[in-house]
Amino acid sequence: MITKKYVADIELKRDEVESFDRYPFSLAAVRPLEKLEFHPAVTFFIGENGSGKSTLLEAIAVACGFNAEGGSKNFRFGTRESHSELHRFLRVSRGHPRPRDGFFFRAESFFNVATEIENLGVGPSYSEHSLHEQSHGESFLALVLNRFRGNGLYLLDEPEAALSPQRQLAVMTRIHDLVQERSQFIIATHSPILTAYPDAIIYQFSSGGIERIAYEETEHYRITRDFLANPQRMLKILFEQ
Ligand SMILES: Nc1ncnc2c1ncn2[C@@H]1O[C@H](COP(=O)(O)OP(=O)(O)O)[C@@H](O)[C@H]1O
Ligand SMILES: [Mg+2]
After folding, report:
1. How many CB atoms lie within 10 A of CB 125?
2. Band (133; pLDDT cuts 50, 70, 90)
3. What pLDDT shows up at residue 165?
4. pLDDT value at position 203?
5. Which CATH number fits the domain that encloses residue 127?
6. Ligand 1 pocket, 52 CB below 6 A?
7. Is the beta carbon of 227 within 6 A of some atom in ligand 1?
8. Ligand 1: which of 20, 21, 23, 80 to mutate, judged by most atoms within 8 Å of the beta carbon?
9. Which residues surround ligand 2, an ion (CB under 5 A)?
10. Structural domain includes residue 204
11. pTM for this structure?
């Protein structure tokens, strides 16, 4: 792999945390956190809704100089009232050289990012058409295909949110190309397709904290596999309960 690590690891400055009893330090994923190492190519955050994936990803993004709401490093708008203070308690070990490109994508505020892209008058480099005139999935795909240029650090929060399975495969192909062009990805996702990316680190967020697991051990993989192997059987079990 010809990838560089732009973010080698993060460390929680535990001795600076006053209390682990309040958000975001009280999250099961954050409370025991010490150090988390990243793959030079692709690292995934998986886990139940509310397990803290977005909180940690956002903190890493802000600590790396991105706008909390998403976008490239030039984006300085904000419509969310606040992001958590977690970023101030993270020590980020950066590799060399620095990334030449970067983007923090969060599905939940992509509409605002699309607006900002238009306000900045930089729309055409993203896509031929206004991002607002495309479906959510189309505009995200346009972003990944046209705007991500390689030699970059890309933080993606649920990129699969609006994508058909076919488009998820297209994104996977693009991620692979960008990895060949010395890019690093950290991706929070529920997608059993994306998490199959070869050789990636998968971190599972749970009540016990954050632990690394193999693709085949993920709930996403096992439940999808079992369901598709015999949908009728699974439905019968579900409806009988
Ligand atoms: N500003 C906040 N104050 C208190 N709790 C919050 C705040 N923002 C998010 N949370 C809570 O933190 C938990 C983790 O949220 P989040 O990081 O978005 O989870 P995930 O991305 O894994 O679904 C959730 O239970 C959420 O309700
Ligand atoms: Mg989330």
Report:
1. 9
2. low
3. 93
4. 98
5. 3.40.50.300
6. yes
7. no
8. 23
9. 54
10. yes
11. 0.88
Residue 79 has a pLDDT of 52
Mean pLDDT estimate for the chain: 87
- Its domain, for residue 97, covers 7-215
User: 231 lies in a domain?
Assistant: no
98 contacts 184 by C-beta, under 8 angstroms? no
Name the strand (E) or helix (H) holding 47. strand 42-47
Residue 236 lies in a domain: no
- In testing the pocket of ligand 1, which one of 54, 81, 203, 219 has its CB within 8 Å of the most ligand atoms? 54
> What's the pLDDT at 136?
72
Domains of the chain: total: 1
Distance CA 115, CA 105 (A): 14
Q: Is residue 126 part of a domain?
A: yes
The letter for the amino acid at 101 is D
Phi, psi of 103, deg, nearest 5: -160, 140
Confirm or reject: Cβ of 53 under 6 Å from ligand 1. yes
Ligand number nearest CA of 27 is 1
What percentage of the chain reaches a pLDDT higher than 70? 81
